[in-house]
């Protein structure tokens, strides 16, 4: 009986995972394919490359979709709180950004573990964090050479 229950649980969890993956892929496609009309140029402080502008646009789309706002009407320097986000909204937005860009935004990158500070983040700040995190994962620090010493002279 216990084995049958475990098999049933595994089947249910695997099925849910497949549906979640389909939803995640559909959401990524929708966000990637949606178009934001260019507004006034807003260069990132990290670098003004086209790739960085794409990151900023995608972050803007994720925030817009989550807060039900038109991404074209969002100023990249406006804090999330002024766009109507509370701490929980900010956490959800960060998790969606993590998932979309396949990065892990750490607590210290967004001001520590104090959830009340998250709504003070701007879209530009989030985009810069994504860019730095992606750059760090693409160029991991090189390993320090070491030697293994045997106990023999």
Structure description:
With 153 residues, the protein is mainly alpha-helical. It has a domain at 43-137: Non-ribosomal Peptide Synthetase Peptidyl Carrier Protein, Chain A (Orthogonal Bundle). Helix content is 53%, strand content 0%. It is built from four helices and no strands. The protein has helices at residues 2-33, 50-67, 87-101, 123-138. It is globular, with a radius of gyration of 21 Å. It starts with a helix and ends in a 15-residue tail after the last helix.
Q: Characteristics of this structure?
A:
0% strand; mainly alpha; Non-ribosomal Peptide Synthetase Peptidyl Carrier Protein, Chain A; single chain; 4 helices; disordered N terminus; 153 residues; globular
What's the SSE blueprint?
Blueprint: H1 2-33, H2 50-67, H3 87-101, H4 123-138
Helix pairs in contact: 2-3, 2-4
Strand content: under 5%
Number of strands: 0
Largest sheet: none
User: Which class of the domain at 43-137 in CATH terms?
Assistant: Mainly Alpha
What is the count of helical runs?
A: 4
- Radius of gyration, taken over Cα atoms and rounded to an integer in Å: 21 Å
Unreliable parts: 1-24, 35-46
Oligomer description: single chain
Helix content: 40-55%
